[in-house]
Design goal:
By secondary structure, the chain is an alpha/beta fold. It has 9 helices and 15 strands. 21% of the residues lie in helices and 10% in strands. The strands form 6 sheets. Strands 1-12-11-2 form a 4-stranded mixed sheet. The chain has a 3-stranded mixed sheet with strand order 3-5-4. A two-stranded antiparallel ribbon has the order 6-7.
Length: 492
Amino acid sequence: MGQNRDSFETTISPVPAMWAFIFPLILVIGRGEVWAQFPAVCTTDAALQSRECCPTPAGFTEQCGGPGRGSCEYLEPSNEGDYQPHFTWLEDDERAHWPSAFFDMACSCEYPFWGADCSGCVFGLYGDECTEETHIVRTNVLTDDDARGKYLLYMQWMRTNSSSYNVLSTEYDDLFQEDGSINTTFVGVSRYDFYIWLHHYACRDFLLQGEDFPYLGFGHQSSAFSSWHRTFVAMFERDVRDLTGDTAFAIPYWVWTGIDECDICTSEWFGYGDEDGKLTDSVWTKDFDAICCHVGTTETCDPTQKEGSLYRDYETKADSVYPDMSGLSLMLNQDFDNEPYNLYSNCSFRNILGGGGNSFTGISGAGVGRFMHARVHFKLGGLLTSIPCSPNDPIFWVMHSYTDMIFEMWFRYHQPSSDVYPESGAAFGHNRYAYLVPFFPVRQVNESFVSASVMGYHFDDLDENGHISTWDEWHKPGTGDCPSSTDFDNWS
């Protein structure tokens, strides 16, 4: 039966003196339209037994808001099984039946409304009636002092304010019962820990007939890597805006290409670490406790279990360097993805960006090492090397904001149609019409295979063709074995 344990209260951390005169305390607790796991009101015994998640939004009298906003409808199951010859192998993994393993009915919102109860707006719009367009601009965290200061402050607030969603903490073996019922335990979490849990849950290894299949699940190592993380970062960004009332907030990006060392890892900013690597030297990170790192690869994380301080152990190996700027040109020249749509995909933008493809040759396969995005995780070390729990470190978000910026460079230059994205053949949960797991309400992969502008945000200095004029030095011919599908190097 469903149990609820909410161990967080909505609190506001004191504003450090250094920022008190710059940022007025504008904290307004918003609706918090977060898209993953389930709203707390849907994790009660009654809701779970009814297999229905159709909340009534505040200020309304009907489920999902009623006519003109939304209605409670049958939740169409994902058709992923149609593309997976070994679909039955995944019958023990509840994520393969997302979210039908939990609910049959959910809110269907009328455009432009969105959310588990249709109280929110689709990406790109905001306001009570979702009539106002968002024009969020992500800027360079190294040079934009205002954006960096807000970001660090707001991360503390996210850590100490509760989410309106609850998350599953039940061990997998105890989840399904012989009578067909689900034995679930949902727990309350802070807004920040919610996203750590979500990333861990998506990364959990596949379960094939009760056995572990070593694969980073639904958000990595196949075609949906870019779309999944675009959605993930945009969700987090909007949750920060809902919490703080700062409608212009954007997650700044950290340019991790072409650098010799982490230029934002200082005691004043993101922390460097003491002799043990613990990030206790920064006022912004010293009180953060890690979660979801010391659990098995097939276990569900219990976010109420704290695991100590954040830490990094910067790699000192000779081959452990940050990605080179020249690798961008080769990568941006490639098709979005190629068969077999995994770590062995050659000449694949997605695989090179994710780290499975060599950024100098474009060739993938066993033994090529870690490149691009994965190399940065490896270089920073510590919790960042444990991919499932890496969002514990607040540097994760600015790192992935830049990863998303590179995706936007590729997208704006190629301006692809939706059929560029594989309809079938990718890993489970990564095909074009698959649901992005574990986002709720459901969202298909192709809905996030769009330009950032469609989702209501932009990157400073990035023009409509994906070009940044100040970066001309890396527009040089690719040096690898992959053919150039387009002539990105002559683009202007």
